[in-house]
Specification:
The chain is elongated. Helix 1 runs antiparallel to helix 4. It is 78% helix and 0% strand. By secondary structure, it is an all-alpha fold.
Length: 232
C-alpha cells in the first residue's frame, strides 16, 4: 500500500544532464572538424605561388602543369571519390571510430606536408601525395559529422545542430582563401601548420570519454538517438 509505482527513477536527471553535455561536445567537435576540412580545401589556392616558390618549381612550365593541377584539384577529387564510401564504412564499423581516426589521419598528413624535405618535382610529388592523405582524413570527418549529430540530438533540435555545421563549412571555404594569403606571406609551410593544433585538439576528443558517454546516453536516454551499433 505504501509503494509509489509512479515515482521517477533516481537516475533520470543525471542522464538528461549527461545527454545535454554530450550533445554540445559533439556539436562543438564536429563543427570544428567541418570547418577545418573545408578551410583546407581552399587555403592552398591563394598560397600556391608561395608554395611553388618555396620548393623552387615553376608551375607554369609545360612539364610542371600537372603538378599545379593536382595541387588545385587533388583534395576535392579525393573527397568526392571517398566521402560516400567512408560514410558507409562508418555505418559498418562505427561512426565515432571512423571520425576519430579521420582527425589522426588529417593531422599526421598536415605535419608531413609542412616537413617537405625536397625541392623541385620531388617536392611537388611529396606535397601531392600527402595532400591526398589529408583529403582522405577530411573525408572521414565530413562523412560522419552529420551522422554523429543526428544520433546525438533529438528530432526537434537536429535542424539547429546541422545548420551550425553547414555554416561552419561555408565559413571555412571563405576564410581559407584569406588565411592562405596571410600565412603564405609569412611562410608557405604555415599553410599546413595551421591545421595541426586543431587536429590535435580534435584527436584528444577520443580520449575524453565522449564516445562511451554517447553509448551510455543511447542506452538510457530518450533523446531520439539511433541504436549504438550504428554510431559507436
Amino acid at each position: 500500500m505504501s509503494s509509489q509505482p509512479g515515482k521517477p527513477p533516481r537516475t533520470a536527471r543525471p542522464r538528461s544532464s549527461e545527454a545535454d553535455r554530450y550533445r554540445w561536445v559533439a556539436l562543438t567537435n564536429t563543427t570544428m572538424a567541418v570547418f577545418m576540412s573545408t578551410l583546407d580545401g581552399s587555403i592552398i589556392l591563394i598560397a600556391l605561388p608561395a608554395i611553388f616558390n618555396g620548393i623552387h618549381l615553376d608551375p607554369l612550365a609545360p612539364a610542371n602543369i600537372a603538378y599545379l593541377l593536382w595541387m588545385i584539384m587533388g583534395y576535392r577529387l579525393v573527397q568526392a571519390v571517398f566521402v560516400v564510401n567512408l560514410g558507409r564504412l562508418g555505418d559498418i564499423l562505427g561512426r565515432v571510430r571512423i571520425y576519430n581516426l579521420g582527425f589522426v589521419v588529417f593531422t599526421v598528413a598536415s605535419i608531413l606536408l609542412s616537413l617537405d624535405p625536397f625541392t623541385g618535382s620531388r617536392a611537388a610529388l611529396w606535397l601531392i601525395g600527402w595532400r591526398f592523405l589529408q583529403a582522405f582524413g577530411g573525408s572521414m570527418l565530413s562523412a560522419n559529422s552529420a551522422a554523429i549529430l543526428t544520433d546525438a540530438f533529438p528530432p526537434e533540435r537536429r535542424g539547429f545542430a546541422l545548420g551550425v555545421n553547414q555554416v561552419a563549412g561555408i565559413a571555412g571555404q571563405f576564410l581559407g582563401l584569406t588565411a592562405g594569403g596571410l600565412l603564405a606571406a609569412w611562410d608557405w609551410r604555415a599553410v599546413f601548420w595551421v591545421n595541426v593544433p586543431v587536429g590535435i585538439a580534435g584527436t584528444l576528443w577520443r580520449t575524453s570519454g565522449c564516445a562511451t558517454t554517447g553509448r551510455a546516453i543511447r542506452r538510457g536516454s530518450t533523446g531520439g538517438a539511433t541504436p549504438p551499433s550504428r554510431s559507436a
